[in-house]
Automatic annotation (TrEMBL):
Gene Ontology cellular component terms for the protein in this record: ribosome
Encoding gene (name): rplI
Function: Binds to the 23S rRNA.
Domain Ribosomal protein L9: 13-40
Name of the featured protein: Large ribosomal subunit protein bL9
Protein family membership: Belongs to the bacterial ribosomal protein bL9 family.
Keyword vocabulary terms for this entry: Ribonucleoprotein, Ribosomal protein, RNA-binding, rRNA-binding
InterPro entries: Ribosomal_bL9, Ribosomal_bL9/RNase_H1_N, Ribosomal_bL9_bac/chp, Ribosomal_bL9_C, Ribosomal_bL9_C_sf, Ribosomal_bL9_N, Ribosomal_bL9_N_sf
SUPFAM superfamilies noted in UniProt: L9 N-domain-like, Ribosomal protein L9 C-domain
Native source organism of the sequence: Streptomyces litmocidini
Membrane in keyword set: no
UniProt entry tagged with the keyword rRNA-binding: yes
Length: 148
């Protein structure tokens, strides 16, 4: 099935790309979550609009991505969350929580879709997350999760 991506999807493409994927993947995952729309001849106008919006929000050069990477890796991020007695969290830390904690700590504004968690963060302590700034540049960031 041919689809137009509306958001960046790891391993598939960036917003505005027209890709061919298996029917079930598009029908059950990409389209319902708003990551893609079905391709039509009239949808070609949407592609140009999506690409224009992408150019506004994307990090244009590798040098710019490396500057932001240096800022991120120099930022100490503490995230206060509710937890139980044994240090287990009530729920888990989401990429949106991390993005807002980076902003609060004085770091650069990061889109929550660029934050990649290896596994869900469900305990107190230090954790490593990756922030994908550019297809070739990713920043490793240490997060300190503390009890609120």
């Amino acid at each position: 099935m041919k689809i137009i991506l509306t958001h960046e999807v790891s391993g598939l493409g960036a917003a505005g790309d027209v890709v061919d994927v298996k029917d079930g993947y598009a029908r059950n995952y990409l389209v319902p979550r708003g990551f893609a729309i079905r391709w039509t001849k009239g949808g070609e106008k949407d592609v140009a609009q999506i690409r224009r919006a992408r150019k506004i929000h994307e990090i244009a050069t590798i040098e710019q991505a490396n500057e932001i990477k240096a800022q991120l890796e120099g930022t100490k991020v503490r995230l206060a969350v509710r937890s139980g007695d044994a240090g287990r969290l009530f729920g888990s830390v989401t990429p949106a929580d991390i993005a807002s904690a980076i902003k609060t700590a004085g770091g650069p504004d990061v889109d929550k879709r660029r934050v990649e968690l290896g596994s869900p963060i469900k305990t107190l302590g230090s954790h490593q997350v990756s922030v994908r700034l550019h297809p070739e540049v990713a920043a490793k960031l240490g997060i300190e999760v503390v009890a609120a």
